[in-house]
Write a structure and sequence with these properties.
This is rRNA adenine N(6)-methyltransferase. It is a single chain. The chain is an alpha/beta fold. It has 15 helices and 9 strands. A 7-stranded mixed β-sheet has the order 4-3-2-5-6-9-7, sandwiched between helices. Strands 1-8 form a two-stranded antiparallel sheet. Helix 6 links the parallel strand 5 and strand 6. Helix 11 packs across helix 13. The longest helix is centred in the first third of the chain and has 25 residues. The structure holds S-adenosylmethionine. The site of S-adenosylmethionine (SAM) has 23 residues, from strand 1 and helix 4.
């Protein structure tokens, strides 16, 4: 009899505590700085953050994972081979762990950071060390900002912008010696991949056209605060002294076509009706009535002919203004034959893009262009400034 009230009271107490604990869990910021280890730099950062009026929380959406392993930071700086007269560009300095090390060896550091809270912490730490005269912080989105002149790049970048950022660097207007980048491991593997590797894709092809990529080291996720879900790697990208004479817009459009399905044979890719119509439409827009395509006048009106491929309606509508449905069928079929002739002439029909070197791909593109087949409207703008570039191209 006496036991019942006590157990009810116990249950009630347990329930209240549980509700309170659940509420706390729900209100706790997801990326709160909670990681514990004994690394001295870790303590420094936590102390630094706690000394701020507003405590700093790290945002996953901005890729805010702070590198705290001193050995890794030192290796990155050492491998970057920074000369005393060098200006270094750092993308995403965060709280400044890497920036402080860069300032010890470089003449000048330009740091582009999107988060004002990080900029405040960075400026404070840099001023404490007396380096403020050699640091210029640009509080903007690195993809939407013109880069200043720099000699080399050293950065632990936010992984979410890896592809457009690498594109902006290697295809941008600023000449530079090298870029030492800490990247997501899988992304780094794709940059390093060679023809025939499973990771080899359009990114590798496009970067390899203009730069060499060297592997430096893998970095464990445990070396970051807060700890990310993925491991990382450091690579060095070095722009090539000479790059092939190729229209880059044409090259990107060509590699985009070839690598849509990188393991399909080129014959299968270029046989697709949608692809043929796309290329036919482009050739008509560039050179209406050119000898590259069948003359519209030579086609009969053929209004009774059916087209049974509904998938291609958009492309077909786009070129309807040029000819009737039956004429389109004939033109498409003749254009397909022309494309296949080019592939056969270079023995490319049965080859897969994932196994081709850049030299082979360049050769195929030149064969297409010689035959009057283009992948990008040659009359369109050629020199994108590097801000527009990053927005427009993702490798
Ligand atoms: C991975 S953290 C690196 C922090 C620091 N470099 C380190 O190694 O500890 C990436 C940093 O990039 C910043 N960031 C994210 N998106 C950015 C962008 N689009 N432009 C510039 N900075 C950005 C984040 O706020 C964050 O501070």
């Amino acid at each position: 009899m006496l036991r019942t009230p006590r157990s009810i009271s116990f249950c009630l107490t347990w329930f209240v505590y549980r509700q309170r604990a659940l509420r706390q869990l729900r209100t706790k910021p997801v990326n709160r700085y909670t990681h514990k280890n004994n690394d001295s730099d870790d303590k420094k950062i936590r102390h630094l953050n706690e000394s701020q009026e507003d405590k700093v929380f790290f945002h996953k959406s901005k890729g805010q994972h702070i590198l705290t392993n001193q050995r890794v930071l030192d290796t990155i700086v050492r491998k970057s081979n920074i000369k005393p007269a060098d200006s270094v560009l750092e993308i995403g300095p965060g709280t400044g762990n890497l920036t402080l090390k860069l300032l010890e060896v470089a003449k000048k550091v330009f740091a582009i950071e999107i988060d004002k809270r990080m900029v405040d912490i960075l400026n404070k730490r840099v001023a404490e060390r007396g380096f403020q005269d050699r640091l210029t912080v640009i509080c903007k989105d690195a993809l939407k900002t013109e880069f200043p002149q720099f000699d080399i790049v050293v950065a632990n970048i936010p992984y979410g912008i890896s592809s457009p950022l690498v594109a902006k660097l290697v295809y941008g207007a600023n000449p530079f010696r090298s870029a030492t980048l800490l990247l997501q491991k899988e992304f780094a593997r794709r940059l390093l991949a060679s023809p025939g590797d499973s990771e080899f894709n359009r990114l590798a092809v496009n970067v390899k056209l203009v730069a060499d990529v060297e592997f430096v080291m893998d970095v464990s996720k445990r070396d970051f605060l807060p700890c990310p879900k993925v491991d990382s790697s450091v690579v060095i990208i070095r722009p090539k002294a000479e790059i092939p004479a190729v229209n880059l817009d044409e090259w990107w459009a060509f590699t985009r076509t070839c690598f849509t399905k990188k393991n399909k044979t080129l014959g299968a890719t270029f046989k697709q009706k949608k692809k043929v119509i796309e290329l036919l439409r482009l050739s008509k827009e560039m050179v209406p009535n050119s000898e590259n395509v069948v003359n519209v006048d030579s086609c009969d009106s053929g209004e009774d002919d059916d087209d049974d491929d509904d998938d291609n309606n958009d492309d077909e509508t786009a070129i309807e203004k040029f000819c009737s449905p039956s004429c389109l069928e004939k033109e498409t079929s003749l254009y397909k034959e022309k494309i296949m002739r080019v592939l056969k002439s270079g023995a490319f029909e049965d080859k897969r893009p994932s196994k081709l070197s850049n030299e082979e791909l360049l050769h195929l593109l030149s064969l297409f262009n010689q035959a009057g087949i283009y992948f990008h409207d040659q009359s369109e703008r050629k020199n994108a400034d590097n801000v527009a570039f990053a927005a427009a191209y993702s490798l």
